[in-house]
Amino acid sequence: MSLRLKYFLVCVLVITVPFMISGLITYKQYISFVEKDTRNYVVQITDQIRMNLDNYIDELDKITLTPYYQNAVIATLAKHNKPWSENVYAVKEEQLNMNLYLSSQSRKNFVGLVLLANDGSLFSDSNDISASKWSLLDAAAVDTVNQADGKLVILPPHIAYYYKRPAHVFSVARLIREPGTNKPLGTIKIDLNEKAFLEFLETVKLGNGSKVQIMDKDGRMFYPELSGEISQQNNQVTPFAGDTGDLIEKAFSSYSNLFIVGSISKNELHKDAEKLVLSTLYLSILSLVVAYIIAALFSNQLVKPIRKLQMSMKRIARGSFTERVAVSATDEMGQLAVGFNLMVSEIERLVHEVYETRVKERESEITALQSQINPHFMYNTLELINMMALQQGSLEISDVTSSFGKLLRYTVDKERMPVRLIDEFRFVEAYMQIQSFRFGDSIVYSIDLHPELEQCWVPKLILQPIIENAIQHGVGDSGGQIRVRAEVENGDLILAIEDNGKGMTPEDIKKIYAGLYEEHSKNKQETSAFGTRRGGYALYNLFHRIQLLYGEPYGLYIDSKVQQGSLVYLRLPLSWELPNQRHHREEDQDVSRIDR
Fold this sequence. Notes:
This protein is of the alpha+beta class. It is built from 15 helices and 16 strands. The strands form 4 sheets. Strands 2-1-5-4-3 form a 5-stranded antiparallel β-sheet. Strands 11-13-14-16-15 form a 5-stranded mixed β-sheet. A 4-stranded antiparallel β-sheet has the order 7-6-9-8. It starts with a helix and ends with a helix.
């Protein structure tokens, strides 16, 4: 990321973040004020509805008291003051007098106005009622009224079965007693539905998305009744549930023992705020664009001298040490240009000195390289030793010489990278033969390679360092067994070297793993004195070769216990096709640089 872009992004953040924070705070405060005002308004409306409801219930209360002022009504109920029976009958004159009374008290929003006598007789002004008696299915409502002992009762939504089609109603009712004796004579019952509330609810508007509900203390809904489904068994209504995002306020009527619940959708309240935010957003975007343009122009002027310095540094990196930066100011950038020019002059002087020194060193290296022994001469010498051993009958010397020749040819052959797994195992076998001559019968080895895996490709010389460590640190002193095997696990190639030597402690394993990841380990081997053996880096180089070639999760893994031996295995991708030779030569060169 360029310096100019970084500076521009900083300007953008400095401008944008405070603006967004202030805009968000303003929006939240505006919403809070609107919700507070709306909540107060809903409280006023619900209280107004409560007063209207109290007036309406008071009017119905007065209607339920009118039978006490009608002697004919009291007399008729007294005649039917007997236990409930299926066989009840009201004479035509009684029906006429009762209907005349009930019609005078009926209102347009009544579902029905009925008188229920104790013996089961029913008197009503409604054409929807064809029966002249009420059934035991309506007894629950009658019992509730009787328990109130003459007080006004508001019955929750229930089903009235005395209509032609059972009606879903709620009712205002009262027990009628005989004046003087105070004997129960029957029940006056005003059946209503949700339309009864519309007369005083239509005059109140809460706004779009608003709702009004009327329910009792037990949560049974009176309005709107259609919001729930009534149960035939217990005459209960599942109450209407408002949205969780609504503003909800309640008002309680102590006269009717009903709750008036008003709710209004917050989404409706937020519409005005969203309009304000949208208009503010357009203006803000325009302001931000102007601020960004100014920031871009200013950043360009600030970074321009730095770019010139950068271009001069690139030309110097390509070898043009005559490059100098023009000093056009006395500020920090001018001082930086002066220091840069002095540094380039000093570098130019040092380059000439170092160049002459390196030329002399290179001449010495070329002379040393020319004096190295030709590998072919070494092969021919080993063959001569082998022939002489055979002539003298020294078969063991011949076998050792032959095995060493195979190791030498396999090791110095730069063209075969990577190699077939069978070739790598043959190299291991030759190496183990030489070690067998060295240690005798104290070391026993076995090599297990399935024929199906012989032709897969692996990096060259990846098993010998592990086997050498197994001999040197595992079984070399007291002898033991070494087993080399290849297998496939989860689609990967596993090359395992297992011994039954003295094993390792968990602390030893941790040290080995730590050494594999130490960056400076590869540099320590370069400080060995002439003629001394450099050790401790074989596993490090092997591990990093695999990491460079294949990456995670491929690498080297160790499992060992004290006096129980060690298991070291390599996880490699299973490859049957020869990779591009040039690609692998470049990787081998990278690994060689690490090894050095």
